[in-house]
Design goal:
77 residues, 75% helix, 4 helices, elongated, mainly alpha, single chain, 2 domains
Length: 77
Amino acid sequence: MRIMSGTQAKKLELLEWLASLQDKSLIEELIKWKEDHQRVSVEQYNHELEEADAQIESGDYLTHEEAVKEVRSWREK
């Protein structure tokens, strides 16, 4: 007989709860959360870096001062 750690037991409890879940909107929210929190692959990460470099080279960026000014404008709204 194998004894589960506390973390393993919690994961099993979570899986059992998830398997019994009937609320479709909650399921969709959980799927969205999972997609938003998945790590990207090295290839995707490198692609995003290349896109960012291209934006910078084309002048499509904010200076620190511009970013601070924009953030301050959000507080005023």
